[in-house]
Design goal:
Layout lengths: L15 H6 L10 E8 L5 E3 L7 E3 L4 H11 L3 E7 L16 H12 L4 E6 L13 E2 L2 E2 L1 H18 L3 E4 L6 H11 L8 E6 L6 H6 L20 H13 L3 E5 L5 H10 L4 E5 L1 H12 L5 H15 L3 E4 L2 H11 L1
The protein binds ligand PBG.
Pfam families: ALAD
Catalytic activity: 2 5-aminolevulinate = porphobilinogen + 2 H2O + H(+)
Family: Belongs to the ALAD family.
């Protein structure tokens, strides 16, 4: 005696409580990583023009920033440094008293409640803005590797909890793992930017980190946005080389890749919700064209649904505050 010739999917959508009960994916503050741009100098708190709400700060503003993040319950920061001086070989990146190394020490002195993830790259420190040393108008893979290793080791010595190499050289996980182990840091995990596309969505970040390449582009080391199998190969190598986490970057245009990673590799998958993705939403919401909170929560929840376990996002503070409101 059936009443219906069809399924009643709306049964499970009847009330907010019921919808919450059957919700498959939930966004939590504990999923979020907040990127910080630390600039050399004093009393600097300067808003990035293409990223409203995101600031470059000097070390004297770091403590109050950390207090705010702790109050919000954000578990981790990802550190980028902007040095006063740059050179051909990015010396500031592996200076034991470089800006990021100082920032790490300062945070660690203040608290053990916040995980410090160090972005390991040279592009903010090189005069040419590329992620390694230049030979013949291109980044020399094997000559760059030892500099990335030195950078990672100085970051670990300063107290970094996780090393996140974003340089996209071949073999960087192998070499950095070896370097960390030899320096006594076999317990420090590597969060590899395994799948990093040569994306136009990094534009605002390059303003924020002052890392625009002075010639050419990054297409000989970052990946072609058209490729999926290449992502599988990159991640496969990094996992074999010992990566503990894999990052997919950017996130929004690469949800299929996040899902591929989740299905293929039993390691935590990290989505990097990059600068251009932030700026687009900010611009539209500042114009009153979209509802910022609703759009951001929908986007980040979708990244989790796609398979991300962790999300690096410039919206972390906003999301944490919104989630606090709700509860
Ligand atoms: C450094 C690095 C970049 C980003 C993170 N690490 C820039 C780049 O590769 O050009 C981009 C992050 C963002 O756009 O939010 N190699």
């Amino acid at each position: 005696m059936t009443m219906n010739e069809f399924d009643r999917h709306r049964r499970l959508r009847k009330s907010a409580t019921l919808r919450s009960l059957v919700r498959e994916t939930k966004l939590n503050t504990s999923d979020l990583v907040y990127p910080l741009f630390i600039v050399e100098g004093e009393t600097i708190k300067s808003e990035v023009s293409s990223m409203p709400g995101v600031f470059q700060i000097s070390l004297d503003y770091l403590d109050e920033e950390i207090d705010e993040l702790l109050t919000l319950g954000i578990p981790a920061v990802l550190l980028f440094g902007i040095p006063k001086e740059k050179d051909e070989v990015g010396s500031g990146a592996y200076d034991p008293h470089g800006i990021v190394q100082k920032a790490i020490r300062q945070i660690k002195q203040k608290t053990d409640k916040l995980l410090v993830i160090a972005d390991t790259c040279l592009c903010e420190y090189t005069s040419h803005g590329h992620c390694g040393v230049i030979h013949d108008h291109d980044v020399d893979n094997d000559k760059s590797l030892p500099l990335h290793v030195k950078t990672a080791v100085t970051q670990a010595e300063a107290g970094a909890d996780i090393i996140a190499p974003s340089n996209m050289m071949d073999g960087f996980v192998t070499e950095i793992r070896k370097g960390l182990d030899e320096a006594g840091f076999c317990e420090i995990p590597i969060m590899s930017y395994a799948v990093k596309y040569a994306s136009a969505f990094y534009g605002p970040f390059r303003d924020a980190a002052d890392s625009t390449p002075q010639f050419g582009d990054r297409k000989t080391y970052q990946m072609d946005p058209a490729n999926r199998l290449e992502a599988m190969r990159e991640a496969q190598s990094d996992i074999e080389e010992g990566a503990d986490f894999i990052i997919v970057k950017p996130a929004l245009s690469y949800m299929d890749i996040i899902r591929e990673m989740r299905n293929a590799h039993p390691v935590p998958v990290v989505a990097y919700n990059v600068s251009g993705e932030y700026s687009m939403i900010k611009a539209a919401s500042l114009n009153g064209w979209i509802d910022e909170k609703a759009v951001v929560i929908e986007k980040l929840t979708s990244m989790k649904r796609a398979g991300a376990d962790i999300i690096i996002t410039y919206f972390a503070k906003d999301v944490a505050a919104w989630l606090q409101e709700k509860s």
